[in-house]
Design goal:
By secondary structure, the chain is mainly alpha-helical. It contains 2 helices and no strands. Helix content is 81%, strand content 0%. The mean pLDDT is 79.
């Protein structure tokens, strides 16, 4: 975690840009997750024979992407 709370203007501007980049990544990731969840839900609604595997893989997709995003921030 970064302890720089903006001791000067350059530090504040850098932190602001980093924050904006993180927000952009989160928004893009959220759209992908929603798409995967929607497909998994549709397969479940249609009684897909291997829906448990699909749900497991969609959860793994979510957590793997979330962890990767966190690592890029820290």
């Amino acid at each position: 975690m970064q302890d720089n709370f903006g001791y000067d203007l350059a530090a504040v501007e850098a932190a602001t840009k980093k924050h904006e980049a993180i927000e952009t990544d989160i928004n893009a990731y959220e759209e992908r997750v929603q798409a995967v969840v929607a497909v998994a839900q549709e397969l479940e609604n249609e009684n897909y024979h291997d829906v448990e595997r699909i749900n497991s893989r969609s959860a793994a997709f979510f957590f793997a992407g979330f962890l990767a995003m966190l690592r890029s921030v820290i």
